């Protein structure tokens, strides 16, 4: 599919879904998970940091790691991809942003109603009673990678506060998953941006969209195999999204 034919489909779409992974935040300086050398899972062991067992085994190591990630996000800025996605909402009748990312860069770029399938760094809760916990805005300075920070205690039951992240082996938030699925099955165009597409059930969404007749486009710096009915725009998310919007809707000064 050429950029101009995709642009035409965007102009004619009644409902567009943008589905993002860590690659959408990469140009903001936020590490992805599986990029060679720089990916978080290349440098850290998810079994030690991203499971309920890991947290119970070493709450301070786990909490410190997520605070380090939260502070990196706090010091980052939305990039051109986030801005283009927020801008896209002004040009189509309905845009649904479904993200696997736990940062708030879509929101800070102006996207609204973002569906977070894997939770959010800014929404910790008590591991025992589920009470939400209000984080202090930001730590004085960025904790060192791997530093231990004692998690805060729940004000209601004194249990440990855990990151509001969906860990491996945990279910996705029911409402988020249902909303993401409904959008995927109802949209005309599904843009999958910056995801390796290997973590389920999130990775099912493009397939559900395809199964319902949507035009599915993957935007990624690295080419990977997709079915013959899917499309691929290879390149960085910010550049590809900016040129796609300009092709579809004319020059957009905001980008
Ligand atoms: N523009 C577009 N794509 C990019 C960019 C960029 N600037 N930089 C990297 N990418 C691509 C990589 O090629 C890779 O395919 O983004 C993808 C990131 O893949 P992952 O690191 O696997 O991240 P993601 O797909 O979001 O992982 C899904 O896995 O560990 C869990 O819960 C975690 O939400 C995460 C889930």
Descriptive account of the structure:
With 255 residues, this protein is of the alpha/beta class. The protein folds into two domains: 1-29 and 78-120 and 172-255, TPP-binding domain (Rossmann fold, 3-Layer(aba) Sandwich), CATH 3.40.50; 31-75 and 125-162, SIR2/SIRT2 'Small Domain' (2-Layer Sandwich), CATH 3.30.1600. The protein contains eleven helices and eight strands. The strands form two sheets. It has a six-stranded parallel sheet with strand order 3-2-1-6-7-8, sandwiched between helices. A two-stranded antiparallel ribbon has the order 4-5. α8 links the parallel β2 (95-99) and β3. The longest helix is centred in the first third of the chain and has 16 residues, at 59-74. The mean pLDDT is 94. The protein binds adenosine-5-diphosphoribose. Residues 21-23, 26-27, 32-35, 39, 100, 118, 194-196, 199, 219-222, 236-237 line the site of adenosine-5-diphosphoribose (APR).
């Amino acid at each position: 599919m050429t950029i101009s034919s995709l642009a035409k489909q965007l102009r004619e779409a009644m409902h567009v879904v943008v589905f993002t992974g860590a690659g959408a935040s990469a140009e903001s300086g936020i590490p992805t998970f599986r990029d060679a050398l720089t990916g978080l899972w290349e440098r850290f062991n998810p079994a030690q940091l991203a499971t309920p067992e890991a947290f119970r085994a070493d709450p301070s190591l786990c909490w410190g790691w997520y605070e380090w990630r939260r502070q990196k996000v706090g010091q980052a800025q939305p990039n051109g991809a986030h801005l283009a996605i927020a801008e896209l909402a002004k040009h189509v009748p309905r845009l649904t942003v479904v993200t696997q990312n736990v940062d708030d860069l879509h929101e800070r770029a102006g996207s609204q109603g973002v569906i977070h399938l894997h939770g959010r760094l800014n929404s910790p809760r008590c591991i025992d009673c589920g009470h939400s916990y209000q984080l202090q805005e930001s730590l004085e300075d960025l904790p060192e990678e791997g530093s231990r920070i004692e998690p805060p205690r729940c004000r209601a039951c004194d249990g440990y506060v855990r990151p509001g992240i969906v860990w491996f082996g945990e279910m996705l938030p029911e409402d988020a998953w249902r909303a993401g699925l409904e959008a995927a099955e109802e949209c005309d165009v599904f843009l999958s941006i910056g995801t390796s597409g290997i973590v389920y059930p999130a990775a099912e969404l493009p397939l559900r969209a395809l199964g319902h007749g949507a035009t599915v486009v993957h935007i990624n710096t690295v080419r990977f195999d997709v079915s013959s009915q899917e499309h691929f725009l290879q390149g960085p998310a910010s550049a590809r999204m900016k040129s796609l919007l300009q092709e579809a809707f004319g020059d957009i000064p905001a980008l």
